[in-house]
Amino acid sequence: MKILLIGASGLVGTAIEHVCAGKKYELISPGHTEVDIRNKNVLEELVAMHRPDAVINSVAMVGIDPCEDQPAETFAINTTPAMHLAKSCSRAGSIFVQFSTHAVFDGLKDTPYTEDDAPNPVNIYGASKLMSEYLALNMTERHYVLRFSTLFGKRRNNAMGFVDKVLKKLEDNTPLRIADDRMDTPTYAADAARELFKLIESEKPFGLYHIANAGSVSYYDFTARLKDRMKSSSDLSRGKDSDFPSKTKKPLKTHIISNRIGPMRPWADALDAFLADRAGR
Q1: Whole-prediction pTM value?
Q2: Going from the N-terminus, what domains does the chain have, and what CATH number goes with each?
Q3: Could you read off the pLDDT of 228-246 as tens digits, one per residue?
Q4: FRET pair for 165, CA 20 to 30 Å: which of 47, 48, 93, 196?
Q5: How far apart, in whole angstroms, are the C-alpha atoms of residue 8 and residue 58?
Q6: How many CA atoms lie within 13 A of 66 on its CB side?
Q7: Alpha-carbon span 212 to 215, nearest angstrom
Q8: Which residues contact 186 (CB under 8 A, 6 or more apart)?
Q9: DSSP at 251
Q10: SS3 sequence, 195-215?
């Protein structure tokens, strides 16, 4: 199988490279200096030249505040490329895989969101990713749109997500105040990458899927387990999400579950596996 991966240095991109190496798939993963995701011609030429079995778009501008500050740039990176890639995949006969996020929901639901729940983004980031979903779903017949929750794992780039920041503070034994009212489904990027290839290899029906480890947990309880496993002496205290203001609304409860694929392993087991992998480097 030939895979064209755009955005290989992030969490899932890094995990995809590892999975492809294990399966001996041909992986083409140009760096960001080689591919301007905002350039329609570059994207079209890339797909036409390689004619891969699948094109995976893992590029995204993330962070609620940065996206609010730069809405035009956010849509130029998160939204428009999905249209160009979907059309290019349709012409080449390739499967198009577009990554999305739990942030397409408003966070008002007490139980986990499924693929059948209506999205209602409350900020620029969520809106940009939802529009990318619509483009992928409608611009090519052979597509998988995958929504991820908060991810953790190894990455090749220097970006710092929530879990990365918490890990650093726990390693430094720095005091932490974490919201206990914000719910999520933390997911190991390695598990997400393996699930992605299960969809493609088993020829699951094209469409929209939630990809997440099983279970829901507050940010506080997730951090408490991480602190315990790392044997950190950080002082961990409870807070509320409102204690950490941002420039716009943030969805409070974004735990997700899939009603279209079988359950993945629990997030706690996945976290332990990640820490073991991390210790082994």
Answers
A1: 0.95
A2: 2-157+185-215+254-266 (3.40.50.720)
A3: 999 999 999 999 999 988 8
A4: 196
A5: 7
A6: 9
A7: 9
A8: 149, 150, 151, 152, 163, 213, 217, 222, 267, 270, 271
A9: -
A10: HHHHHHHCCCCCEEEEECCEC
